[in-house]
Amino acid sequence: MCLSSAQCRAARALLAWSQDDLSSASKVAKATIANFEAGKRSPYERTLQDMKHALEGAGVVFIPENGGGAGVRLAKRAEASIDTNETETVQYEEYLENDAPPGAGG
Hints:
GO molecular function, one term: DNA binding
CATH architecture of one domain: Orthogonal Bundle
InterPro entries: Cro/C1-type_HTH, Lambda_DNA-bd_dom_sf
Protein name: Helix-turn-helix transcriptional regulator
CATH topology of one domain: 434 Repressor (Amino-terminal Domain)
Number of helices: 4
Helix content: 25-40%
Largest sheet: 2 strands, antiparallel
Organism: Rhizobium sophorae
Radius of gyration: 24 Å
CATH superfamily of one domain: lambda repressor-like DNA-binding domains
Strand order of the largest sheet: 1-2
Shape: elongated
Oligomer: single chain
Pfam family, one: HTH_3
């Protein structure tokens, strides 16, 4: 199985999502989600994948069983940074005016 009921509940909690939120994001009926999380039924594999993909799209990372138990966590958010490539010239709008003398190639 690609998603356990405990992982689903934990993932929603990390995102502060209700069952309605997951239903909207995954296009899976709320009743199906509620029954799955309560352990009343196991949805089709495709339905589980739809829920998992919706949660992953919102930033959840699923941790596989590795001897310590399967789990979930939030993906590390990309921090604002400037990608600098020192071999590349960047021209800012305020410096686009050519102030070189004619014939200087600037």
